[in-house]
Amino acid sequence: MLSKLYAKWMYSWETALTTRDTNRIVRPLEWGFDWLEDFSPLARAANPHLSDTPVADDFARMTAVNRDIVARADEFFGYETPTDFRLERRHPQLYPTNVRPETLEEDAELKRQAETGEIEEAEFLRFTSPIRTRYPENDQVNARWYPAHPDTQKGKPKQAMIVMPQWNADAFSHNALCTLFNSFGISCLRLSKPYHDVRRPAELERSDYAVSSNVGRTTEACRQAVVDIRSCIDWLESQGYEHFGVLGTSLGSCYAFIAAAFDQRLQVCAFNHASTWFGDVVWAGQSTRHIRAAFEQSGLTQDQVREIFSIVSPMSYMERFAATPKRVLVVHATYDLTFPLKYSLDVLTNFDALKIDYISKVLPCGHYTTGETPYKYIDGWYLGSFIYKSFKHLAQAKTAPALESPQTAKAR
């Protein structure tokens, strides 16, 4: 009886949080072949301005594009290391994605404090993304830099995490986790996802272009995010870092998973809310109901939406992810209405089938309520303790051979 009452209360709270924003826009379906034509000949052939081939069936064409790109995913997520890495200092800003009065007041107060010098400037890693879009501001990658104090790094390899918050996160989301990891001697780059905070085009209130009913643009945003993560590791390596991890929440976990599948340098992976198929979350999640509406209006089904988002689905790269040993944490929430529970459990089922070594943690809340008290502290404990233990293990494995005497090493 109590469990049913708790579930009812939690679902009500979760629904209230996912429906409080009034600036979600139902945009018409756009296939977005033009966003993928630089890579896929099939996408290029679908553009009537570039080919005489008639477009008889856009769904069949996009499905074929997905198959083609997944088969050549090494190329798709490949890149050339940026040459313009730089650190810049500026006052942090909120970049809110909702128009609630309390959020706008917080934003205004931060701007006032910056003008009066009441808050300090922060350091940000900037570089030009190897994946270019039509939005110059989006192509300037932004990652707030949290270097660990040298005293906390003594006697061990330099270690760093890349942290990617949820879809539509403001610029302060997950900063507290970076500070926590710093206390462990782990440096952090808090990476702004494509179309988020300072990278968001001025025409948008929300980070709509990262996930939308424009299929090609959504796919290209994922490609850019994965390449940006890998580019951040390149910079960290140039600074002498040796051990790398990635933490992603919600949409960030999707990007983090794919990056880890294609970059063996990512040895520590924390997925804070995860799912197997991108399209299933778009279709079934409360947060993306406005995107589902566009697909439904065009006559698409859930199965079809799953197919056209195969490129950006962790399930497409599950075996590749499993091929390299990693330290993995998966956190899911029992009352999640954005990443419905069955899709999160499907991640664990596939991990078991592929014999991936992982730790599973469960939150007694939902997706949005993860950010509320007391659940955010439980989540922080799960993430923090896992990151601490995982990097400690890597450091011990690195330093153990150096501690052996020549005689011991020869005997072994």
UniProtKB/TrEMBL annotation:
The cross-references to SUPFAM superfamilies, in alphabetical order and at most eight, read: alpha/beta-Hydrolases (SSF53474)
Output the superkingdom of the source species. Answer: Bacteria
User: What InterPro entries does the entry give?
Assistant: AB_hydrolase_fold, ABHD18
One GO MF term attached to the UniProt entry: hydrolase activity
Alphabetic keyword roster: Hydrolase
> Is Hydrolase a UniProt keyword of this protein?
yes
* Protein's name according to its UniProt entry: Alpha/beta hydrolase family protein
